[in-house]
């Protein structure tokens, strides 16, 4: 029910076990697999409008996604991988649980696993959780060792950098949100320094801030990584911010140290792609 879970299943070498995925699952192995979800919010709207619509839906206790319950019944999965971490990012756990009750067979329900990684270490452990659930513990241990080795290599490269600039990651551009959860880990491993407000979000959700607060963090470099945006859309979001005087007054903006990234693949998705995001940040630094 979420792309990071699909990425981890594929990384475990079990992509051929997938029978259904979310609308955002873009792993090549999932290209021809039925899609079980679809968004209710038009993601092509300007960031400020998306934020307003999302807030209205959440306050009205309305889901941001539709779940194809009939298709789920037809697919008859043994295991459903979902999440409770963020109601904005994917179909809600309660929706999945309600649909799963319709799949009861001889008193048994499908196994439902809610994946809740909040730090980079927990992202790595999520692969093991999936492997254990699927009865493939050895695959999980192999993936965990591989990811930790790669992270250690990136961390060593970060330590060897001549400079360690402060890096602020905007998880949403308008209004501005500072990245949390695993983002501070990514910055530290890449060799950057987390501004105070961002460091405080390690393992915690991202936080909405004012432009004055962004300025108070005094970032040397700003990464614009809007949740769910690819690189071109992130670049467009930067251009659209030029009407904000407070944005234009930031030192990082004035010195041209603002960079768009593919947040959808490498920043906002808690899977193996986060390592690509760390390597990308090292290149930007």
Q: Can you walk through the features of this model?
A:
By secondary structure, this protein is of the alpha/beta class. The protein has two domains: 3-145, 3-Layer(aba) Sandwich (Rossmann fold); 162-284, Rossmann fold (3-Layer(aba) Sandwich). 44% of the residues lie in helices and 12% in strands. It has helices spanning 3-11, 47-59, 69-75, 93-100, 120-133, 137-159, 183-190, 196-199, 211-216, 231-240, 245-248, 251-254, 263-266, 273-284, and strands at residues 37-39, 65-67, 79-82, 111-114, 167-173, 176-178, 207-208, 221-224, 258-260. The strands form three sheets. The protein has a five-stranded mixed sheet with strand order 7-6-5-8-9. The protein has a two-stranded antiparallel sheet with strand order 1-2. The protein has a two-stranded parallel sheet with strand order 3-4. A hairpin with a 2-residue loop joins β5 (167-173) and β6 (176-178). α1 crosses α5, α5 packs antiparallel against α6 and α7 packs across α14. The model has no long low-confidence stretch (mean pLDDT 89).
């Amino acid at each position: 029910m979420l792309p990071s879970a699909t990425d981890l299943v594929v990384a475990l070498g079990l992509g051929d076990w997938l029978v259904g995925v979310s609308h955002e699952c873009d792993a090549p192995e999932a290209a021809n697999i039925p899609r079980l979800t679809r968004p209710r919010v038009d993601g092509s709207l300007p960031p400020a409008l998306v934020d307003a619509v999302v807030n209205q839906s959440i306050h009205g206790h309305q889901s941001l996604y539709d779940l194809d319950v009939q298709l789920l019944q037809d697919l008859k999965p043994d295991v459903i991988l979902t999440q409770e971490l963020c109601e904005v990012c994917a179909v809600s756990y309660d929706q999945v649980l309600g649909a799963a009750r319709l799949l009861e067979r001889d008193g048994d329900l499908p196994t439902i696993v809610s994946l809740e990684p909040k730090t980079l270490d927990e992202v790595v452990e999520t692969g093991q959780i999936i492997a254990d659930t699927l009865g493939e513990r050895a695959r999980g241990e192999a993936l965990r060792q591989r990811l930790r080795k790669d992270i250690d290599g990136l961390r060593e490269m970060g330590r060897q950098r001549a400079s360690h600039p402060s890096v602020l990651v905007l998880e949403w551009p308008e209004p501005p949100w500072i990245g949390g959860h695993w983002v501070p880990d990514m910055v530290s491993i890449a060799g950057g320094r987390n501004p105070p407000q961002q460091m405080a979000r390690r393992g915690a959700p991202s936080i909405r801030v004012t432009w004055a607060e962004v300025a108070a963090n005094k970032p040397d470099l700003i990464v614009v990584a809007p949740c769910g945006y690819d690189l071109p859309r992130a670049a467009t979001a930067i251009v659209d911010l030029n009407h904000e005087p407070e944005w234009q007054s930031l030192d990082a903006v004035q010195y041209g140290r603002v960079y768009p990234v593919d947040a959808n693949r490498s920043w906002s998705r808690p899977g193996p792609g986060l390592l690509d995001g760390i390597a990308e940040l090292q290149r930007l630094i």
